[in-house]
Amino acid sequence: MVRVIPSTAKHAHRDSHDLTERLRAAGLRPTRQRIALAGLLFDQGDRHLTAEDLHSEAARAGVKVSLATIYNTLHQFTESGMLKQVAVDAHRSYFDTNTGSHQHFYCEDDGALIDIPGEAIAVSGLPMPPKGMDVERVDVVVRIRKR
Amino acid sequence: MVRVIPSTAKHAHRDSHDLTERLRAAGLRPTRQRIALAGLLFDQGDRHLTAEDLHSEAARAGVKVSLATIYNTLHQFTESGMLKQVAVDAHRSYFDTNTGSHQHFYCEDDGALIDIPGEAIAVSGLPMPPKGMDVERVDVVVRIRKR
DNA sequence: CTCTTATTTAGAATGCTTCTAATCTGATTG
DNA sequence: CAATCAGATTAGAAGCATTCTAAATAAGAG
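Above: the input entities. Below: the structure tokens describing the complete assembly.
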């Protein structure tokens, strides 16, 4: 009986190459840790996760990475525009792999975030920002809870 | 020469009485600490401040209050609707004495918050919340920075 | 005034994040 | 391909805001 090489092997190779290029483009050395974390972050659609989430996910995936590196990497990815940081609650800070313009439902019961597509929503009547200041971005958080 | 009783004395008395009633209405015993903190919080218009801000303000005003009480009080006031908590940044958590519907500019350079009146701004195109959930409130944060 | 219960408090504990200094690795050069 | 060196990673310490704990204090009822 022939053991079929899983197709993920091929993907892993292709992805790893893409990720390497992506890191280089961001001015970051494609190290083992950064490639692994980028794989976890970007290989499964839009995600919202905390530093701790990513750390345990890496552990589960058998990637040995220190918590310090998790933080460094999340911040570097955020600075280079690969991630967006979402401040939703004094207690929880999420990193969002969807860097496009979009907004969130925030469930106060369990802390879950749900994307709201950017096209769906519109904010009107914004006053001018104070003199000498530019608008960086507009965040909308719709706080919801179980009825 | 007659020493005139400062008019603030009269106000202090009136305010203190009002505050006492307000605390009672919220189901909170009007203790020395809560009355003093309520005075600092509500006697000077709309304010955005952190626990640490209030603590040092109390110290400056000669009111002896522990930090634990500051936190307890801020949370109790928030639960009873006298304050609103504003999550704007992973690092800074503000309490807002303006509990009406309004939004904020957030200056990423220095962490300052500036009110945007609720009437000015409108959010349209909000999708329905997931089944069984109610919208609690919609927060808009306009992030600005120096040009 | 006494009793009961809520409140306050100092200080310890927690949790998340950043810092430090040492070690290691990726990339470049000879 | 070995040496080099700046950049990256790491364990653990440190930092900071917040919460917890257990004991002391103060408010309100009777």
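Note for the figure: Chain B touches chain A at residues 85, 87-90, 93, 105, 107-108, 114, 116, 120-127, 129-130, 132-147 (CB under 8 Å).
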